[in-house]
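This is your field. Please look over both lines of this record.
***
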Amino acid sequence: MDKWKERKNLIPSMERDDYGRDRARIIHSAFFRRLQGKTQVLGLGESDFYRTRLTHSLEVAQIAGGIAEYFKEKYRKCYEYSELIPEQNLIEAIGLAHDIGHPPFGHGGEVALNYLMRDCGGFEGNAQTLRICTQLGEYSECDGLNLTRRALLGLIKYPVTYSQAVNKKIYNGQNTPLNIESFKPPKFNFFDCDTAYFEWILSPFDSKDIKLFKSFDVTDTHRKTKFKSFDATIMELADDIAYGVHDLEDAISLKLVTKDDWLDVVKPKIENSFNDYDGNVTNDLFSGTNKTRKKVISYLVHYFVRNSFIEERGIFKNKLLDFQATIPENVNAELKSLKDFVVEKVIKTPEVKTLEYKGQQMIIRLFNAIAHNPVMLEKKHYRKYQEQSRDEVRLRVICDYIAGDTDEYATRLYHKIFTPSSGSVFDRL
C-alpha cells in the first residue's frame, strides 16, 4: 500500500478509492455540516445571499480542483510534475476540510478561545481542524475521520505547535476579558498534546526534510513558519482566491462597499490589470445586476487560476515538500488588493467589529460557566471530561465542545444559561 494513502489504524482500502473515501468522510461528517451555521465574514441571519463557512469551503474545494486540473494540462509533458499533482478527490477533500475546525463567530471566536486557553495550549482553527480529522471525527474510535496521510499533510499550513509559535510577551498585561484583541493566536497547526499525530504524518520523510519543514522565523509578534507541502499551497492559493473574489462579491451585492470606494482604493492598484476581460470590470461589478456581476466574478477566479504555476524550490529532498503552487508577484499584489479592500471596508467596520465582540463575550461567559459547572456539558462531553484527571486536559474538552458549536447553537446555549426568561427543561441542546 502507498505510504501516503495509509491511515492511522491501517484499515485496508478494499476496492474503494482511498482519496474518494477521504472526501466522502468529510462531506458526511457532522463537523462539516455544522459549517453551514458558522460565520464566514458577516453574522448569520443578516441575509440569505452571502457565504457561510460551508459555502466558502465548497468554493475553495472547487477552485483547488480547478488549479489541479490546470496544472495537469499545463505540465502534461513533464512527468516529474504531473505525477505529483493531486487527483481531484484528494485536493477537493483538502479544500472541503480546511476550515472544519473554525469555531462559532468567525475569527472573533478563535481569539476568544485562544484567550481562554492561553495557559493550556492555546487555540487556533487550523490546529482544531487537524484535531477533528485525527481524533474527534466520528469515523474511528481513536483516530477521528481517519483520513489518509497525504490528505492530512495537505491540511498542515503551519507545521509547529502552540508552544513553538507563541510569543507570550505580547499577552502581558492583557488580563481583562473586556478587551482581548491582543490574543489573536499565532498560526500553528497542532496542539502540543497532538504532537504524536503530526509526527506520524511526517514519518515517511527524510529527517533533514522534517527538520527544515518545521523551521520558522522569529518576528516581532509570534513565530512564523516558512514552508508548506505542495498540496497545502494549492489549497491556500484557492483559499486566498475565494477570500479575495467571493467575499468581494458578497460585499458588493449587500451594498457594504460602493463604486466610489472601489475607484478610490482598488482601481489605482489594478489600473493595468484584467485587460483581456470582455467589458469594463468596474462598471460590471457595480451594475446592480447579479448576472453581470457574476460574469466578472467568474472571470476573476479564472484569471488567478490560469496565472498559477508550480515552483521548484530546490531545498527539500522530497518533491512533495519542495514543489509549491504560486502566482507571480504582480498577480499576487492584485489578489491582495482585493482581500485588503474587503478587510478595510467590511471586516474592520464598527458594525462588524461590534458583532464580533459580542460573539467573543458570549464564548468567554459560556466557557467560564461550564468550566465551573461541567455538569452543563452534553453527556458525551461530560463523560470525556470526567475521564480526565489533569485540569489542562479537562479544559481542552470544554474547548472542543464550544469550538464545535454553530453560531446559533452557542447563542441558544448562552440564553438558556444567562437569560432568565429563556430556557426550558425540554430544550434539547
About this structure: Residues 8 and 146 are 6 Å apart (CA to CA). Residues 44-49 have pLDDT under 50 and may be disordered. Residues 230-253 form the longest helix (24 residues). The longest strand covers residues 309-312.
